[in-house]
Amino acid sequence: xxxxxxxxxxxGGPVGLTLAIDLAHRGQRVLLVEQRDGPSxxxxxxxxxxxxxxxxxxxxxxxxxxxxAIPNEHxxxxxFTTQLAGQELHRFRSPSINEGxxxxxxxxxxxxxxxxxxxxxxxxxxxxxEPVLRHHAEQLPGLEMRHGWRCDGFTQQDxxxxxxxxxxxxxxVQSIRAQYLAVCExxxxxxxxxxxxxxxxxxxxxxxxxxxFRSKDFLPAHGLGIANLYFVFNPGSFGVFTAIDGVELWxxxxxxxxxxxxxxxxxxxxxxxxxMGKPFEFELLQTMHWHHHQSVxxxxxxxxxxxxxxxxxxxxxxxxxxMNTGIGDACDxxxxxxxxxxxxxxxxxxxSYEIERKPIAIRNSxxxxxxxxxxxxxxxxxxEHIGGSTPVAEAARRELARKIRWLARQFNSAGTHLxxxxxxxxxxxxxxxxxxxxDPSQLTPSSWPGMRAPHAWLADGRSMLDLLGRDPVLLCxxxxxxxxxxxxxxxxxxxxxxxxxxxxxxxxARLYERRRVLVRPDGHVAWRGERLPEDAQGLLDQxxxxxxxxxxx
Length: 553
Description:
Blueprint: E1 5-10, H1 14-25, E2 30-34, E3 47-48, H2 50-57, H3 62-68, E4 76-81, E5 88-94, H4 97-102, H5 105-110, E6 122-123, H6 126-138, E7 143-147, E8 149-156, E9 161-167, E10 173-183, H7 190-194, E11 199-214, H8 218-222, E12 229-232, E13 239-243, E14 249-255, H9 268-276, E15 283-297, E16 301-302, E17 305-307, E18 313-314, H10 322-342, H11 347-380, H12 391-407, H13 414-418, E19 473-476, H14 482-493, E20 499-502, H15 506-512, E21 516-519, E22 525-529, H16 536-543
Parallel strand pairs: 1-2, 1-10, 2-7, 4-12, 10-17, 19-20
Antiparallel strand pairs: 3-6, 4-5, 8-9, 9-10, 11-14, 11-15, 12-13, 13-14, 15-18, 16-17, 19-21, 21-22
């Protein structure tokens, strides 16, 4: 049966937009439906990690994202206080956006993460990121977006899905046939529930309330200067302020460590003034009640329906990993759907989506939950008199500062964002070597099969990442030979768009560890070896999900 559209994406947040954009850049027709008419009103997620920025780099979106982010020149500070206008306990420093862009020697020496990626952390609220992605999506042929529409349900057959769409303003109902349906509607959507998919993990961890507000008085009131995050360690005022635009938009996550306390009837002025340590002028824009989570869906695929983003996993926000994990989901799923729709990918590609991404969601959500536990533990041990002027209070602050320095190490998170790898994937060919360390705080760059291909700067100013990201690529660290051309011709025979890239750089060759490295369209290593295997067809068939053959070169 001919489909109306190859892929229907339900949900127009960062994950749904990323998936639709990636597919459209690959030439696929996509329909995206989203209930909201505009971007998220609340800055739910506020951090793009370096890997997400690398993925957006492929579409030339990094400069637009920087323009919408907090002021690029501001150093990335995380400040810990008793109250904002009280005592500062510790200050954690990461590179500013501009330090990452300019790659100045002093910054490169001070911040190791700038050697591992063209980007460091980019602070941008979801409400500011979505318009950038949506504007880009509107320029892409083959991508149709319907805002103000809802998917009320679907049925599926062996070769298609039929979804029922409703236009909220008019009540107009339309049935759409698609070859595949991607559910990116968030954690509270009904489509996952309609599939009967439960979640595993710790579930709800604790309650929080976020106050999104506008205030030009905020910075002068505390005098700490601009920071990305301001943590408040004061009984009755535990929480964190987040810079949304670094000028007048701020968000306060008010933490409820006591699960018996009601989060419903709250005095925003009293809470914000207590956290500040004195009154200040503000305009409350929105209040949101939510929970920390550590939850991962038991299934990520049912037939022709796939889950991604919050529909597949829910996180604690400590670490800024939730949205970034969803962006990774989208970019993994996009190239696999595209390969199958074009005919060169097999069913094994679609089966590999859950096999690869679910362990990453478990890894990342546990890292985030552990980060949250550390913060909660130190907050819960904070004495009532922490802000006092007595010798006892001063001693308590010294002890609290020691604990905060310990937990602040979690904000060195480059390894979390860049170091995930697909272990035991059916479309990755292991070579029997020892797996590099998986350390949340730092990266061991490697071409180990399943890992992200390492970044390095080429002599012409490009990153190695700029050679990757659309089609499969065979990186050749010496002259292209007959075997390489034979592999390419075998790929062409089955419709697989394999590119050959000669890299004439000894330092980069040492970084990549083998003379031949085969990289997937998502930038992860599929195979490496000193020479190509004799069975070129077998190598390609495993990468494209046709057969499962083990063995390295």
